[in-house]
Amino acid sequence: xxxxxxxxxxxxxxxxxxxxxxxxxxxxxxxxxxxxxxxxxxxxxxxxxxxxxxxxxxxxxxxxxxxxxxxxxxxxxxxxxxxxxxxxxxxxxxxxxxxxxxxxxxxxxxxxxxxxxxxxxxxxxxxxxxxxxxxxxxxxxxxxxxxxxxxxxxxxxxxxxxxxxxxxxxxxxxxxxxxxxxxxxxxxxxxxxxxxxxxxxxxxxxxxxxxxxxxxxxxxxxxxxxxxxxxxxxxxxxxxxxxxxxxxxxxxxxxxxxxxxxxxxxxxxxxxxxxxxxxxxxxxxxxxxxxxxxxxxxxxxxxxxxxxxxxxxxxxxxxxxxxxxxxxxxxxxxxxxxxxxxxxxxxxxxxxxxxxxxxxxxxxxxxxxxxxxxxxxxxxxxxxxxxxxxxxxxxxxxxxxxxxxxxxxxxxxxxxxxxxxxxxxxxxxxxxxxxxxxxxxxxxxx
Length: 446
Known about the structure:
The protein has 16 helices and eight strands. It has 446 residues and is α/β, with parallel strands linked by helices. It has three domains: 2-88; 113-292 and 438-442, 3-Layer(aba) Sandwich (Rossmann fold), CATH 3.40.50; 295-426, Helicase, Ruva Protein, domain 3 (Orthogonal Bundle). It is globular and about 85 Å long.
């Protein structure tokens, strides 16, 4: 081990010497450094093969570092001019060709990632979200008004820079973030924990800094982070340094938002708020619970997906409420025709207690599939057109191709009876209990 480290130190000496010369540089010193690095990598590999498992893992990482240094020396030597030529002094050209290429690749990757963060909010507004009236009113006060009239919200009335939306999955937290940006005509940046992972050392922190700098430049802006618990979970001594640095950088940027004058709002969404780090919870001063949709919200979602009339209707903008969105059952701008009475709708609302917004969207989608299944002759209970061999039968395919959209039967209550057999609530009672307990202790009650 001592021999390999000594060899690596000698290689580093050769590499530094080669970088200091500014004239008549032919890359010979870099070639020597490369050979020494290769020897060091081989020596460490032999030592790793004779060591125990844990020591071998560490030595394997050391070996990869030596091998990478050897490759860098070889590439730099290949880029060096022939003997008798001249190289620019160190610092005059901004580094070696390898460094320039690596930096360019990283900068290009960061630019592409930032472009992916920018998202179009479309026509999503608070009116698009069914129910949650108190939540929407509270959000208008703490988010929308300060972004629209910042001169009114100064001093003790200064707007909060961090908002946490927590609740069961499928309740419309992402829609709320988009609605805030839409109501204020703000730039909207959507990202998640995986957005900041990279093979380059330190690029995750650089991405975070670039994201907040871009948001400040395009202010007023909203930065939405989905599954925030995956990014800012409670820190532990067993975590690797890269993860800890990433969390520390994000927390520092949040502090910068709090003290800065730019109109940037961070909105974090999570289903597991109890796993957030205490420092993150402090910086997200407003913590709002987004519950499952109540009876009126569920009725509004069903009505937006299946309008209360007997003819196909254009897709409405309402019904994300309490989450999920209203796009699951519609196609080509229209919603399926239905023949549901007020009593039928009341029965559906009652039976769907405990469903999230996305659960209800899936329920309506399953019910609206029943008329098509009847057309192909397989009934309501079985999958459409599946033969014993697992292939779609020719007869059912021909029926599907021949049917006119206007000839489809209307969705009726019996279709929902079949749908309830297939769709179940996705949120467990134990999960609701944990969220309710967190809301009682840390939530901003609305």
